[in-house]
Design goal:
The chain is 30% helix and 24% strand. By secondary structure, it is an alpha/beta fold. The radius of gyration is 22 Å and the shape is globular. It starts with 7 loop residues before the first helix and ends with a strand. The chain binds zinc ion.
Length: 431
């Protein structure tokens, strides 16, 4: 299989060279922050950082303060419209996006022309990494609204020489029709939406495994790295499915290479990544992903606590890249672990079991207390099999692997919510 690189020299460089590149980027960023970014000037000042030269090696990043989402949101609320994390006068900014606001007030993000080029560059690493180049046609099943989502991917595809087909403002069937009529070979969307499109296609008598799609590029949810979900998508579409992840306030930061080694590469040329123990904040192999973006000078984040739970692998990949990998992709959120009857359960582990049952079309999980006991109910929609048998088999499998038996209830087809962007399938009613 041909392995393409966007920047082979850096992607395959020894660690010292990557760190030297990161260090010069970090010093440049800090210089700008201390010079003209009110938000970071204050934060760095409070942490006793007076000059970029105080950072002499990449580990010195540990002297810099963390950035929390709630600080950015509070700053923006106190300093409307856009807050004080702005390095340049407002007229330099040309792009506006905002977070989906699922966990509170939406956060507005601005980019300068140079910063938007940086987004494009990050996406060039991603798309080249998954094998996209000239001759490919990418269909974007994305709303193109204020959420940054795949806007950057749209630019990146152009930068790597591929053709972009926008699917904003269309329902599922017109999108399917458009991607078939235009013979797109790559579908860009969330993992949940790839499954929903396939479901709607089947109801309309279309077999998506017969379309021209050979590759799917996902983000927005852990799904594409959950083995059973990934397999379901690949089997349904008869195509390879690649994970990547990013955040509005941080950027697009990782991708799965064509060899699909079970991990996603971090774009270390454009960021400094740390994996820290969520309690001690010391470097760890498994813990919370903390990110500093080096190229978004206009509205940067330094040591941003993503809340994502990850496992680091620094071994050189078979693809030749030395960019570290997150083994198993985003394994969930550091704070999303459910404790049910004293047992630690991660939503991604539950999804992995449910998705192994091909007759389960959609599901949702609720944890609640009944007579002082934790209970878990899994609601499922079943297609093409005897519902009671599927429910009983799923309950037994979960009992075997999670060490407690949930109640599995079959609900009528198409009654559970479907998702285009961020899915919500887990509800803890005890909180
Ligand atoms: Zn690789």
């Amino acid at each position: 299989m041909e392995i393409k690189y966007w920047n082979k020299e850096l992607e395959t460089a020894e660690r010292e060279k990557i760190e030297a590149h990161q260090l010069s980027g970090l010093q440049h960023l800090l210089g700008k922050m201390l010079d003209s970014n009110a938000f970071y000037k204050k934060k760095l000042g409070e942490a006793g950082i007076k000059g970029a030269s105080e950072i002499q090696k990449i580990e010195d990043i540990a002297h810099l303060p963390f950035t929390l989402k709630k600080e950015l949101v509070a700053d923006q609320a106190e300093n409307p419209l856009f807050g004080t994390n702005l390095t340049y006068p407002l007229e330099r900014y040309v792009k506006f996006h905002q977070t989906s606001g699922t966990t509170g007030r939406p956060y507005r993000c601005l980019d300068t022309e140079e910063d938007w080029q940086w987004w494009t560059r990050c996406w060039s690493y991603i798309l080249t990494g998954v094998g996209v180049g000239p001759g490919d046609r990418l269909y974007f099943a994305f709303s193109f609204g204020p959420f940054v989502g795949f806007w950057g991917g749209f630019e990146g595809a152009r930068a790597v020489g591929a053709m972009t087909i926008p699917g904003g403002g269309l329902g599922s069937i017109p999108r399917l029709q458009s991607l078939m009529d235009n013979e797109a070979n790559t579908l860009v969307c969330t993992p949940s939406y790839a499954l929903r499109l396939a479901e709607e296609a089947r109801e309309a008598g279309i077999d998506v495994s017969k379309t021209s799609i050979t590759r799917l590029v996902h983000a927005g949810e852990p799904g594409a790295s959950i083995p059973a979900t990934k397999k379901r998508i690949e089997d349904t579409w008869g195509a390879k499915c690649f994970d990547h992840h990013g955040m509005t306030e941080v950027g697009a930061m990782s991708f799965e290479c064509v060899l699909q080694t079970g991990g996603i590469h971090l774009i270390e040329a454009e960021y400094v990544f740390e994996v820290l123990d969520p309690v001690t904040h010391k470097p760890a192999d498994e813990g919370e992903l903390v990110v500093t973006n080096l190229g978004r000078i206009g509205m940067p984040v330094i040591r941003y606590r993503t809340g994502d739970r990850v496992k680091l692998n620094r071994e050189r990949c078979e693809c030749g890249r030395t960019f570290a990998r997150l083994q198993g992709g985003m394994m969930g959120r550091v704070d999303d672990m459910l404790i049910v009857r004293g047992i630690n359960v991660f939503p991604t582990a539950i999804e992995n079991i449910v998705r192994e049952f091909s007759a389960v079309e959609e599901f949702s999980v609720e944890v609640y207390r009944k007579r002082e006991m934790d209970e878990m109910e899994v609601k499922i929609e079943v297609v093409g099999a005897e519902p009671a048998a599927v429910a009983s088999a799923l309950a037994s499998e979960m009992q075997k692997r999670l060490a407690f038996r949930p109640t599995v209830t079959v609900v009528p087809a198409s009654t559970l919510p479907r998702f285009e962007l961020k899915s919500k399938r887990f509800f803890d009613k005890r909180k």
